[in-house]
Amino acid sequence: EVSTDDPETAFCTLANREELNPEEDSIHHCLYQFTRNETLTETNKLLCDVCTQRHCGPKNNIKSEKKYVYTNAKKQMLISLAPPILTLHLKRFQHAGFNLQKVNRHIKFPEVIDLAPFCTAKCKNVAEGNTKVLYSLYGVVEHSGTMRSGHYTAYVKMRAMNNHLSDLVLRGQSQASETEPVKGQWFHISDTHVQPVSVSKVLSSQAYLLFYERLL
Fold first, then answer.
1. Is the confidence at residue 1, as pLDDT, over 50?
2. How far does the chain reach from its first CA to its final CA, in angstroms?
3. What's the rounded Cα separation, in Å, for the pair 111 and 103?
4. Which of 200, 173, 202, 174 is nearest to 189 (CA)?
5. Where along the sequence do coiled-coil regions lie (predicted)?
6. Euclidean distance between CA atoms 105 and 91, whole angstroms
7. N or C terminus: which one in the chain shows less Cβ crowding within 10 Å?
8. Which residues contact 148 (CB under 8 A, 6 or more apart)?
9. What is the dihedral of CA 27, 131, 111, 181, to 10 degrees?
10. How does strand 134-145 pair with strand 207-214?
11. Would you say residue 64 has pLDDT above 60?
């Protein structure tokens, strides 16, 4: 989708991301890096239609003369529509020469996460004046083993129905005011084995997939 936002506000976020100072090896740091502002220069310059028309004249002459004008540009990926369910997929492999290697280090993640620093200032389904977009953790998928073999297990929170989430899914609106994690009991599921676990056990897991539900 091509947007013609004011250049002064095009790279603004719902909450000040520069105040984050995210801890390395955390999900906040991952999101911060993924949504960072990039400068496109040299071979990554952007083809500018306005500059090309200014240099070559009307559009019908551009193809025949093949004089395209490329310019330096800025690029940033931000969230323009906050989803009811947030799924975060962590890259758990890296290249080691010609081989792929499993990344085993622990990535910290919270029970409640605020996406506002990673949302565009004009995020479509966030009420005007709201500077928080909160999500509560309800599921984690963990992988143990190597790139060649391993085992998947899951942590799932058993909780009451979230009526605010239903409103958001069905009507695209949320009247939620909670800022605390949704209350419930966590369970660890491995094949046919299911057992209750503490939230500290969940937060210490080596997450591969994270599932959050919208609070605010």
1. no
2. 26
3. 23
4. 202
5. none
6. 11
7. N
8. none
9. -170
10. antiparallel
11. no
